[in-house]
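Example 3.2
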Amino acid sequence: MNKKQLGEIISRAESLCDQRGVRFTSLRKRVFTLLCTSDKPLSAYEILDLLRASTTNPAPPTVYRALDFLLQQRLAHKLESRHAFVGCSHPEHPHSSQFLICGDCGDVNEIDNSELIKNLASTEKKTGFKTRRSVVEFLGTCAECLNK
């Protein structure tokens, strides 16, 4: 991602926070930027280590509060299988994302497959199950690793 793209993503996040009436503090913005510029999902402690380079004595609760905010505002997603976080590629609208996670190189791609969500909703309705939060992660091997 180049600086222009990053600037647009951050600007969009700031605008969304303004519209929602929530504060996009400098720490929240820094954590969001780290997630968006990382080439891999980041754990809370990896974020903490990266913050130490630019922040005096960042504490784990501070990072977790920033991550909770980003999750609540749909600016980030938690990858349950990795206990790690990624920036959201399209936070403007509510969505249930699915992730393709390569077990070889660690690459993660967010997809938005509406047919899959419809099938899950149909199953939920048939079984009477009420979903609180949907997490769909496909673990496998990406095309690049398959071609090696």
